[in-house]
């Protein structure tokens, strides 16, 4: 049934351009995008004009208020024009690459762009001063790929990205990790981590001394996060990827020095990469997300953050319902235990947070709006006319069939032409929710702009006491602006707003919160006053979800775990549905002793308890876990949340050449090499490059004489080659894993992506030495 509906939906929309900018590859794509942008969204534009989004402007380097209508309109047009243009590309250099290689890469970049500057009138690249070695381009990704003048630069970007030297990341996405100021050795929680660009940036600053828990509430997105971290070659054993709703993350296991709460939001600040915002924007989305955002942020700040720690709250929305209103409620509930910290982003134009805003709400719910649309479509009107004619004929014949007609309406409530009692209560005035004209104000008067917003189908109330009863399920007291006394103590101006036309970026909001005092147990109750504002059916669902989370995994009669999250096990503890991931458990002594003997893992410097495996994996894959993450596992986090991934693959049981033994994995080779006294060799750059060819098998005779003799003395199995000069710089991952075959050859054990990255690094090393 689901597949049929999906196919029918696909056929129904087969002639429509897909995606935000993907339509550009279609013949009608450009006109499709241009039509959406030109028409705009009356409701969204009227809403933000009434909120005062355009009431300030930049004059040189100073933010001033718009003093007249012309300045207001110029600021509005500038915002609208920028918010509908394609987002420019940006990237940053990895913090952990050698400084000499980074300087060489930057010199290459400048040489390539100097040629481009002579051909193009735009400034192709500019440095982001708030983050060293980060750059924003003056062109978008589509232009980089298509413009022949930028072909050489495009190839260079691909090469550096493949090598792991740079990471392509949106400019405003780089802001939260910079604001959070993670220090080496910190224990950090990323509450809503996927897709992982901010996570990787935090990981670079964290180093190998700290620990990072990257959490997401969606298992598929959590797995995507693991893939993303591996793709950008920053996966290390200090990361624990978990799957749990942020507002239910367990707080009794440990507390964190830093927390990033990049909350789920309506995303209207992403209009430059998501054209759908200009068609589907709704104030209802922001109002409904407010409660979820507050629950997640309060859980982080009140329960998970250490006293003296910092939490960065951020969204990619411009809406104060999702931004300042959430922050204000956090400060209000904390009773002085939380405070806002001033944020300084050097060379980056930011606007202060708002201390006042207006609360609007659609006069119709989405279901009511949809039913109204269905009621007025041509087919429904034709059916209604036919029924009315039949009713009239029956009345003339003296038959009573009105009840039959009304029964049809009851079966199809969407086509009933009489509003229900609930409709009348919810709709004090009848308004057209699909207004066709463009938003074009003629005054900056506050009352005038409010009336234009109301014309679009929005209701406005100055205070919560003015909200009529039918709307109080959607509008809550925490949506409204703070009192004058709260404004003086909250310092909401310390929040940061990034508008698209200030720095040619997307829209973004950031607030840095410091925990200055402990919060009482009573105040830490997660949804003490939020549940009372939820509809009864939603309260029941949330209560069941939280109860299941607190109860932990189900146990059988013997106390063995049967169910954990979406993972089902039999009486022996083995997965019977293949869903989810098993816990990390210690490796059996017999297997561990085999590894120690095979690779010379000395007892003096090799910590055996950091070698772990999955509970039902039958020890086929063995992982290397860092000490900070191992300590977290020992505290029992696996009994509270679903652990998706942690550590690095260190050994895998292999059956190459008819043997059954463990081989070293490329993923964790650079962490194992310092502990190995057997089956590792140092190779010159010529021999090292021969191991990176596209051919799977390499003849031993092709290596230098010294390396040939060392390899031929080995028994069948895996071994490691280290590039000469990088024996003590293993963080650069200049190692390759190989397999000694029965015949006079070796087999590569390096994935294509990793091999290409190492090839790019070797090429840079060769060029740097010239």
UniProtKB/TrEMBL annotation:
Q: Where is the active site?
A: 316
Q: Which GO terms fall under biological process for this protein?
A: tRNA methylation
Q: Which InterPro entries match?
A: MeTrfase_RsmB-F_NOP2_cat (IPR049560), MeTrfase_RsmB-F_NOP2_dom (IPR001678), Pre-PUA_NSUN2 (IPR057285), RCMT (IPR023267), RCMT_NCL1 (IPR023270), RsmB/NOL1/NOP2-like_CS (IPR018314), SAM-dependent_MTases_sf (IPR029063)
Which GO terms fall under molecular function for this chain's record?
tRNA (cytidine-5-)-methyltransferase activity; tRNA binding
Q: Which UniProt keywords apply?
A: Methyltransferase, Nucleus, RNA-binding, S-adenosyl-L-methionine, Transferase, tRNA processing, tRNA-binding
Superkingdom is: Eukaryota
Kindly give the Pfam families that the UniProt entry links to this protein. Methyltr_RsmB-F (PF01189), Pre-PUA_NSUN2 (PF25376)
Query: Which residue ranges have biased composition labelled Basic residues?
Result: 1-11
Q: Name one GO cellular component term.
A: nucleus
UniProt domain SAM-dependent MTase RsmB/NOP-type: residue ranges: 101-368
Enzyme Commission number? 2.1.1.203
| Enzyme class, first EC level, given as a word | transferase
Please state where this protein is localized. Nucleus
Q: For binding S-adenosyl-L-methionine, which residues are annotated in this chain's numbering?
A: 192-198, 216, 245, 262
| Compositionally biased tracts (Basic and acidic residues) | 12-29
Q: Does the keyword Lipid metabolism apply?
A: no
* Residue span of region Disordered: 1-30, 524-556
Nucleotide-binding among keywords: no
Q: Which family does it belong to?
A: Belongs to the class I-like SAM-binding methyltransferase superfamily. RsmB/NOP family.
Q: Please state what the protein is called.
A: tRNA (Cytosine34-C5)-methyltransferase
Origin organism is Fistulifera solaris
């Amino acid at each position: 049934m689901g597949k049929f509906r999906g196919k029918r939906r696909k056929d129904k929309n087969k002639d429509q351009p897909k995606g935000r900018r993907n339509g550009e590859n279609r013949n009608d794509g450009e006109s499709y995008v241009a039509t959406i942008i030109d028409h705009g969204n009356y409701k969204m534009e009227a809403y933000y004009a009434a909120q005062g989004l355009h009431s300030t402007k930049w004059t040189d380097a100073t933010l001033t208020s718009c003093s007249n209508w012309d300045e207001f309109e110029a600021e509005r047009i500038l915002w609208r024009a920028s918010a509908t243009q394609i987002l420019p590309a940006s990237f940053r250099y990895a913090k952990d690459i050698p400084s000499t290689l980074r300087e060489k890469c930057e010199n290459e970049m400048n040489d390539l762009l100097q040629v481009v500057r002579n051909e193009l009138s735009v400034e192709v690249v500019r440095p982001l001063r708030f983050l060293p070695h980060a750059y924003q381009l003056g062109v978008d990704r589509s232009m980089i790929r298509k413009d022949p003048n930028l072909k050489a630069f495009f190839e260079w970007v691909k090469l550096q990205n493949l090598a792991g030297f740079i990471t392509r990341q949106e400019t405003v996405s780089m802001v939260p990790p910079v604001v959070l100021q993670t220090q080496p050795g910190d224990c950090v929680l990323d509450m809503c981590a996927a897709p992982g660009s901010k996570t990787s940036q935090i990981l670079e600053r964290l180093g190998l001394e700290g620990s990072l828990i990257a959490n997401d509430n969606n298992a598929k997105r959590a797995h995507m996060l693991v893939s993303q971290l591996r793709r950008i070659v920053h996966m290390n054993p200090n990361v624990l990827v978990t799957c749990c709703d942020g507002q239910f993350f367990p707080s009794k296991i440990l507390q964190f020095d830093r927390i990033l709460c990049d909350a789920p939001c309506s995303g209207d600040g992403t209009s430059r990469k998501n054209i759908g915002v200009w068609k589907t924007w709704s104030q209802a989305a922001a109002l409904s997300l407010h409660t979820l955002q507050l629950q997640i942020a309060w859980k982080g700040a009140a329960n998970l953050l250490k006293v003296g720690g910092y939490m960065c709250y951020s969204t990619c929305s411009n809406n104060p319902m999702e931004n300042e209103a959430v922050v204000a409620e956090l400060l209000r509930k904390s009773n002085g235990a939380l405070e806002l910290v001033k944020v300084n982003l050097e060379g980056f134009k930011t606007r202060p947070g708002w201390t006042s805003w207006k609360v609007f709400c659609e006069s119709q719910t989405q279901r009511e709006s949809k039913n109204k649309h269905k009621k007025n479509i041509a087919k429904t009107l034709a059916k209604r006319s036919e029924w009315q004619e039949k009713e009239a004929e029956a009345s003339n014949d003296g038959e009573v069939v009105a009840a039959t007609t009304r029964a049809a309406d009851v079966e199809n409530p969407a086509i009933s032409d009489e509003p229900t009692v609930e409709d009348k209560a919810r709709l004090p005035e009848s308004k057209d929710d699909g207004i066709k004209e463009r938003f074009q104000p003629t005054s900056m008067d506050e009352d005038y702009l409010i009336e234009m917003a109301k014309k679009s189908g929005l209701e406005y109330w100055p205070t919560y006491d003015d909200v009529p009863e039918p709307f109080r399920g959607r509008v809550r007291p925490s949506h409204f602006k703070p009192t004058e006394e709260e404004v003086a103590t909250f310092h909401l101006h310390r929040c940061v707003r990034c508008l698209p036309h200030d720095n040619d970026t997307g829209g973004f909001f950031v607030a840095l919160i410091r925990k200055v005092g402990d919060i009482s147990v009573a105040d830490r109750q997660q949804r003490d006053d939020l549940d009372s504002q939820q509809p009864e059916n939603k309260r029941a669902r949330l209560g069941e979800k939280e109860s299941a989370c607190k109860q932990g995994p189900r146990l059988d009669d013997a106390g063995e775990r049967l169910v954990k999250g979406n993972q089902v096990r039999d009486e022996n503890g083995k997965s019977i549905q293949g869903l989810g991931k098993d816990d990390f458990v210690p490796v059996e002594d017999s297997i561990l002793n085999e590894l120690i003997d095979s690779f010379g893992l000395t007892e003096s410097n090799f910590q055996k308890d950091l070698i772990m495996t999955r509970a039902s994996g039958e020890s086929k894959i063995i992982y290397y876990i860092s000490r900070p993450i191992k300590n977290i596992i020992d505290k029992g986090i696996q009994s509270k949340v679903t652990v998706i991934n942690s550590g690095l693959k260190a050994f895998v049981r292999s059956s190459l050449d008819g043997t059954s033994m463990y081989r070293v994995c490329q993923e964790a080779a650079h962490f194992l090499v310092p502990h190995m006294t057997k089956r590792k060799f140092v190779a010159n750059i010529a021999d090292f490059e021969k191991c990176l060819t596209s051919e799977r098998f390499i003849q031993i005779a092709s290596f230098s004489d010294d390396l040939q003799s060392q390899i031929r003395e080995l028994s069948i199995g895996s071994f490691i080659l280290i590039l000469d000069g990088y024996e003590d710089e293993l963080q650069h991952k200049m190692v390759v894993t190989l397999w000694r075959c029965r015949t006079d050859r070796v087999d590569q054990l390096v994935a294509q992506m990793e091999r290409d990255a190492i090839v790019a690094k070797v090429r840079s090393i060769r060029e740097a030495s010239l």
